[in-house]
Amino acid sequence: MDIRDDLIEHVPRLRRYARALLNNRDLADDLVQDTIERALSHMKRFEAGTDLRAWLFTIMHNVFVNQVRKAPARAMHVSVDDEDINEREFAVPGGQFGSLEVRDLDYALQRLPAEQREVVLLVGLEEMSYAEVAIALDIPIGTVMSRLSRGRERLRALMAGTQPSAKLKVVQ
Hints:
The protein is an all-alpha fold. The chain has helices at about 5-10, 10-20, 25-40, 50-75, 95-110, 115-125, 130-135, 140-160. The protein is elongated, with a radius of gyration of 31 Å.
């Protein structure tokens, strides 16, 4: 059996390792291809009788390290004045909306009167029943329901920005 045939037998292992290493199928396939290409071009350096798999993984490691080192140099640079570039190509979905909503909700909750905030939090956050809240706060169930209703309505207005006190702080 030719060493090239042995090399082909190791491709699935190389591919599996590259995919785990890069977590990107296309980049992993490129890494495997570069590894095989380098192995074939340097076949004279392989010592017969030694571990071909280890030699191939060494080559893959070296190719990977070289690619990581060169990555900043190969990164695409875009002039901020270049009008031919579609900015949407570089858009990345932000994960900040969830944290902004939580911040805004916390800010709005702090603007509620204490008695409304208590009821809203006990029912909404702690998932207590109206009866449990009434017992915990020592108030009638009707009062729980009216405070909850007013608190929720005020929260909606604050979150929508329709309350005059709904202005958010400007952080500088």
